[in-house]
Design goal:
Elements: H1 2-24, H2 35-74, H3 78-113, H4 119-163
């Protein structure tokens, strides 16, 4: 349940990124009247994206520790722990990439507003960040769904072992 909530926050952040991007296109200088709206929208969009990725990372880390403890203490198949680690590696790569790109784009946007970076760099980072965010959400959804199944399997095996 918590995983789905975090994914929903990430999805809302992605929609907000698109809105912030839409507000930014067509701006030509830091003195444009819409610049303040764009900056605030970008900040509001970046925070839930970074929040959701951070908590998904911690959630997967925590459930991985639980699975590891259950495998060791319950004498379960070590393949369960290996699968948990594999799921984390796939998710971590995408969520860290997406979070890093979103943060970098926000920071480069500040450099563009200060006239110390070219707008095309900010635009390229934006599109790259949105693509990475979409892929990260998909990878996180798949990884967290598989992780929930794995937790259920571990619980089932522990219950069976306890009954014997």
């Amino acid at each position: 349940m918590m995983g789905r909530s975090l994914l929903f926050v990430g999805l809302l952040g992605t929609v907000a990124l698109a809105v912030a991007g839409g507000l930014g296109f067509g701006l030509h200088s830091p003195s444009d009247p819409g610049m303040q709206r764009h900056v605030i929208a970008a900040l509001v969009a970046s925070l839930p994206v970074l929040f959701s990725h951070s908590w998904i990372l911690l959630y997967l880390l925590g459930t991985g520790k639980v699975i590891g403890g259950a495998v060791r203490e319950g004498g379960l198949d070590p393949a369960l722990l290996a699968e948990s680690r594999r799921l984390r590696r796939v998710c971590y790569a995408w969520l860290l990439l997406a979070a890093g790109l979103v943060a970098a784009d926000f920071l480069v946007g500040g450099a563009v507003a200060a006239n110390t970076a070219k707008p095309w760099v900010h635009h390229a980072l934006f599109w790259t960040a949105v693509a990475a965010q979409a892929i990260a959400l998909w990878a996180e959804w798949r990884g967290m769904t598989a992780n929930e199944r794995l937790l259920g399997e571990v619980d089932g095996r522990l219950a069976t072992a306890a009954a014997v």
